[in-house]
Amino acid sequence: MIKFILSIIIILxxxxxxxxxxxxxxxxxxxxxxxxxxSSVQNGAIAIYEFVEELIADANKIKVVDSTIK
Length: 70
Known about the structure:
Layout: H1 2-15, E1 19-23, E2 28-32, H2 34-61
Antiparallel strand pairs: 1-2
Helix pairs in contact: 1-2
């Protein structure tokens, strides 16, 4: 479960542009901007929460139909 949550945080940070690839002639490196990563994760978490909340609201609107044969 922890690996899943950490992977979601990393994916949100990557999507938000918080990690940049920097290459020189001698080395390669990944540079992470902490402020952009935090903002990206927060915005992503809010978007996911709102999406789930909307799904739950839509699920509550579904009416049960009794289709038994008598």
